[in-house]
Specification:
555 residues; mainly alpha; 22 helices
Length: 555
């Protein structure tokens, strides 16, 4: 739950200690106010909360949360808002201990809502203090500082010196961590004034003052402060936090022997957590390196790795336990919800049965009267449906007849177009043969007959011109205009010659017939088919006719 210390700065460890003080303050407040609050609740709920608190002390957070969930049900049934406040507060503390800060904040927020709406201002301040401490644990320092500052402003001048001093201590710690030493100083002095006479707060105050001195560059003063505190308060000579501070400040003054001695003493103290152990091993590694005892330094480095692994495993275990608790709570909530649903369903069924019983008598009276009317209406509906069915069948028959007529018309136009194309092809073939004969006949001697030569050339030009094709195209568009329009839309890059070729393919002319019409060789006609098909994105030229007559082109 604490933050991991940094080997180069002591401020992070100070934050860890401040976080502990925050939780201690919250728990002290809970203890101080729980007794009178619980007195007003049922014995069963009070017993459940005490059992949950005892389970949390022994780190059995799953059992603690289960007990608190039962206590919540008891408190909700009795509308005991004071007990509900402590249930949600303890649920939040459990989740915070398991590093599940999001759920902890939800529980604290619920407790704050209950305190605001039903309890006193003291309870509101208590849960606000917990929320600020949670921000601090979750490394949201700006939020924590803002909340602590608001709380301090609300309680300044209060007779509760522990609460006020703890709040001032947290503000001073956060400001010191942000290197705002001038702003931190008055809060630090106020904390020392209010908490200095309590032995349990001395370690935290010494840590804060040491952190302040180190931050302002007074390493000598920090070292003397820790040494004097150990002399003045013998109990601090066995405090792991103070021993660690003594070792750190000694190392900063290059007193490696003293740093090693104090660090080893800190390790020997019972109850230190893994984060503190890792920080101490890192410090000892630096101290041994300064003494040129490299074997011991490497051993400490290995210990740092081992402790880091253990800390990671512990964090994973806590997160896993938090997820287990979430699942348990979800299951219990589902059970409660299911019970409520069953109860509501049973009540609804009872109401339905009562209503049905009353309605049954009326239904029997009305049934006979309505039955006759329903039969009459059903007969009328059947007649209406029969008329509609016959009309629909007639409409379908008409549409089929129109489609058949349209198909016949298209076939007729296609036959006419094919006939026209064949006539043109035969005529062109005959004319070409005649022209070839005349041009190759040596008896005519075309060079001596320029007029005949010009006439034959004009005839050849007329035969190869597109005038005849334009007539064919005009007729084709009249019968298949939608085909050409859709083809141009789907393939805008097709040229006029390619459209001409595709029109002849569309009316199912053979390659030989198309070659005669276009005045090209059959071999070139096949090659052109491959080129046009590839340009249209068809992998197999043999599918060209099927594509042209398919639904995509025909629309």
């Amino acid at each position: 739950m604490t933050q991991q210390p940094n080997t180069c700065h002591i401020t992070l460890w100070t934050k860890c200690l401040a976080t502990r003080i925050t939780l201690l303050c919250a728990l002290c407040l809970a203890v101080c106010h729980a007794v009178p609050a619980l007195a007003a609740t049922s014995d069963k709920a009070r017993q459940l909360v005490r059992q949950a608190a005892n389970a949390a002390v022994h780190k059995n957070y799953r059992q603690s949360s289960a007990l608190l969930f039962k206590a919540r049900s008891e408190a909700e049934a009795a509308a005991d808002y004071d007990q509900l406040f402590w249930v949600y507060t303890n649920l939040g503390i459990n989740q915070a201990e398991l590093l599940n800060y999001a759920d902890a904040l939800q529980h604290f927020t619920k407790a704050y809502q209950i305190a605001t709406e039903h309890l006193d201002e003291r309870r509101v301040l208590s849960i606000r203090n917990n929320i600020a401490g949670l921000y601090m644990m979750n490394h949201e320092q700006n939020k924590a500082l803002a909340e602590y500052t608001k709380i301090y402003a609300d309680i300044k001048g209060s007779t509760d010196s522990v609460f006020t001093g703890g709040c001032a201590l947290n503000i001073a710690t956060l400001l010191t961590d942000k290197h705002q030493y001038a702003q931190a100083r008055p809060y630090m002095e106020q904390a020392e004034l209010l908490l200095g006479r309590y032995a349990e707060n001395r370690a935290a105050l010494v840590t804060l003052r040491t952190d302040y001195l180190l931050g302002t560059g007074n390493t000598e003063g920090a070292y003397r402060l820790v040494a004097d505190a150990q002399t003045k308060y013998p109990a601090l000579q066995h405090n792991a936090d103070i021993l660690y501070l003594r070792a750190r400040t000694a190392l900063m003054r290059a007193l490696a022997n003293e740093a090693v001695a104090q660090g080893r003493l800190a390790l020997a103290q019972p109850g230190i957590d893994l984060s503190m152990k890792r920080a101490i091993f890192e410090l000892l590694s630096q101290a041994y390196s300064m003494q040129q005892c490299y074997e011991q330094a490497l051993a400490c480095k290995d210990s740092v790795v081992a402790v880091s692994d253990a800390l990671s495993n512990l964090t994973g275990q806590k997160l896993y336990e938090a997820r287990q608790i979430q699942f348990d709570i979800w299951q219990k909530q589902q059970e409660i919800d299911n019970y409520k649903k069953r109860h509501a369903l049973e009540m609804a069924l009872l109401v339905v049965v009562l209503i049905a019983s009353g309605a049954l008598v009326w239904a029997l009276v009305v049934k006979t009267k309505n039955a006759r009317q329903q039969r009459k209406l059903a007969h009328m509906e059947l007649e209406h449906e029969q008329v509609q069915r016959e009309a629909l069948q007639q409409k379908l028959a008409n549409e089929q007849a129109e489609q058949e007529q349209s198909r016949r018309t298209i076939e007729q136009r296609s036959r006419e177009l094919m006939s026209k194309a064949m006539q043109a092809a035969n005529r062109n073939d005959s004319l070409r043969e005649l022209l070839h004969t005349l041009e190759t006949d040596s008896g005519l001697d075309l060079d001596k007959r320029p007029e005949l030569k010009r006439t034959l050339a004009a005839l050849r030009h007329q035969l190869d011109s597109t005038v005849e094709w334009k007539d064919f195209t005009t007729y084709f568009e009249q019968t298949n205009g939608q085909f050409l329009q859709q083809l141009k839309h789907l393939h805008p890059t097709l040229t006029a010659n390619e459209l001409r070729y595709l029109s002849l393919v569309y009316i199912n002319l053979s390659s030989k017939e198309i070659a005669l019409l276009l005045n090209i060789t059959p071999e070139y006609c096949k090659k052109k088919k491959q080129q046009v098909a590839r340009k249209m994105g068809l992998t197999d030229p043999r599918t060209l006719y099927a594509y042209l007559t398919g639904s995509e082109v025909m629309g």
